[in-house]
Specification:
Layout (H helix, E strand, L loop, with lengths): L1 H28 L9 H25 L5 H31 L8 H4 L2 H7 L7 H9 L3 H4 L4 H19 L6 H17 L9 H10 L5 H13 L1 H11 L7 H18 L4 H17 L13 H14 L3 H25 L7 H22 L5 H10 L3 H6 L3 H12 L1 H9 L7 H17 L5 E6 L5 E6 L3
Antiparallel strand pairs: 1-2
Organism: Mesocestoides corti
InterPro entries: MMS22L_C
Protein name: MMS22L_C domain-containing protein
Length: 466
Amino acid sequence: MRWCADWETGRQCSALRGLQSLVVVLDANLPVVGAPGGLESSLTQLLQLTSQFRQTLVQNVKAAPGTGAVNNLAVIGWRGELYSLSLSFCEALLTKEDASANEQPGMLLRVLDGVLIDALCTTENREWLGFVSRLLRMPSLKNDPRYKPLTALIWNEVLPIFVSRGCTVALWWEDCVGVALHFLTLSIDTGGRSAPVTTQDLLARFTFTPDLPSSFRRGFLKRLFADADFLKSALHAMSVSGRLDVDDAWQVYTIWLTYRLVLYDDCGHAATSLTTAESVIRQFFPDDMSDLLASGDPEISLMRLSERFEACETFQCRMQFKAVVLRHLSPLAQLLCRLSDERSVSTLELTSTYRATAALFQTAAVLLYATDGPFHQLFSQIMLPPRRQLCKENSPVHEAIKAGLAENLLAFVTGIAQLNYLTDPFVVRLLRELLRFVFFAVDTRFVAVSCPSNHGELQVKFETLP
């Protein structure tokens, strides 16, 4: 029965190859729009038949049993054949489309659909990223109204699959960063704020989507901040009368803060480019936010936010300001929560996550601490690890957690000192568990003694044992 099913799949592949070859030949030799006589009707039927064969083949490959070594090899083989057929078909039609630019639209406009995109975009092969890159750079997408259906397909079908199947493969990050920038360019060229997928949406998607590897995020933001002209065009597309509105400015600020705290690789060239990028961003910021990037230091920027919070004269004003900050910085907290999940991250990611969280907590604990929400979850996850499990099990990830707590203990305790550590049960628990964890689970070189002083202030003394 298995071999009969494989034989049927092979027949479908052969039939699809023949139909696609016929479509490519017709595309190269016959007009697609306004075809004479009954040719248009025949052509439509041919395209429908090709699409039906492809859809049936995709369904058969997905439904094929995957148990047993032989079955697995058969499924992989047919999936690879389907991918090869789809890629060669799309490449041939796109080549014709490039050759006939500024003329009548070619066959690609009529055959590219969700089924073909699903068959083309796989997690096993990266060659389809080159096709998507070429597709996004088609000049006709920017200014030809006849290509609006194709543009809509790109935003509705290609972009989600690119993010879920391309960007999530860590080894492909360089290729994916280039394609992501082409998506951003297309959004800028087709309206920015009024595009089907806005520039703001793309920046958030490529920065804060949970499943993206850090290599992609780092590469994307590094390229974004390294090219001041491109960054300026993106900000201009997002702006109204040359300035970002408050929500968009906060989004850009959160992306910058994420890059500086979590992903930034401090080197000479990157530092120079980032300084230029920060000056460009300040040009588009509202007047009351431009000073947040004046120093270029994320910790000083957070301190300035805390100073604004402390400067609020009434309790209601303070709570309103705090709500605004927590709402806009929540994507950063959610990302750090995701990166601190020991089941799915590397030791390097854990190290950078602990440093970033320590910087946030040390400089802005009063502003960011809340009884619920993503920052409460982040501080709980970082400062209240499963001590007994970490003491019993030794692994590189567990060692990274211990080192992260030990190296940033002073920052965490400094943040706790800003809070109501005498009466708030959660803060009391944070302090107790931190010191207990360091004493029992971390090297004895790190010892902290804590007690309230006569003035009710928290004193922390570090000793290094021989």
